[in-house]
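The data are set out underneath:

___
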Amino acid sequence: MRRNMPNLADIARLAGVSTATVDRVLHRRSGVRQTTVQRVLHAAGELRYLPEPELEAVRAMPPTQVLFVLPGRSSKFLRMLGEWVQCSQTQWAPYHVNCRVQFIQGFDPQALASTLLRRGRECHGVAFMPLEHPSVREAVGVLADAGVATVTLVSDLSHSRRIAYVGLDNGSAGRTAAYLIARFVGPERAAKVALIAGSLSYKAHVEREAGFLQLFAEQYPHMQVVGLREGYDDEAVNYRQARALLEQHPDLAAIYNIGGGAQGIGQALKATGKQHKVVFIGHGLTPDTRALLIDGSMDAVITQSPQSAIMNCVRIFANLREKRELTAGVEANRSQVIFRENYILARTGGDEFVLVLADTDAAAAHALLARLHEANESRWSSGVVEWGRGEALPDVLRRADQALYLAKTSRR
């Protein structure tokens, strides 16, 4: 007896989908989740509906093409971000995503808009650091009409049609910088503080400034902000801006560098002999900022993981293709504060922080906290735990939270 040949209905029944979905998959039309595609292809192979060469051709679906558009010279952290994309292609393989980088001239909205329009049409999605400008917003809208999704990275773009933002809560980052400066300078001291931004065309820099000023107004109104200057993340410009601030305000107590170009500010502090007298807080852990931390010119760096930021972009574009919730599997971007001794200070919510001390036992941690309590007149609580070998981070944080709670209750 001759065996009946399988048909679309047989494949659909075995794969648990409709015949229309089977037809879309076998004819390589878009609009089907990758997991469903694989299920249909597996069923077609099991039923031997197509010869193996044809089945392999269908399986060879092209990967999602993602373009990262970043400033090329203005920020070493952003340059490092792009270089990490270029050297980590194997990490995107499980997501069936291929990533490329286009470096452009920084702080040029027309160059950014034209690059988005020209290169964006060649791919499925674009991740980029935007400038707040009508031409950039219009380019994002044109790409959206053409079916090209955009994700803003590090800084957001207001009133735009981007599908997601990947980056820090920049208002919170600015508040953290203000809090650190107040603690380093002394919360009761009526000190002068200066701010240097990359450019207020970046929404991120505007939000960091706003968060900084907000915390000062709320908790340290006696602190005096003597001005905000733009350095365009350029070391030479930042050097001149910092020198001018130090000459205009000989009693300047602190500088908050909102953007890049930290090396220029460090050079200005060293040239005037104030590298250990003026508190210096900045953003983005790079070889340059690490060197400034080590020689004591810089006191703390607020940073984020470039790997996590890029991976989140990849996950978002993969989710879009698979018609999943855009944020499925996307991790929250957490800020870290790096000090000279590889200590990590991270905000966990509200006014609570976690301080991770490398190669430090409980006794040394208690001694450090005692010095911090002695140096600050305001009342605050702390709890100490040791991270056991092989212990999961959530378990460590849970024990630390319990220790903090006990310390708080003992003060009442």
Notes: The longest helix spans residues 393-411. The first strand starts at residue 64 and ends at 71.
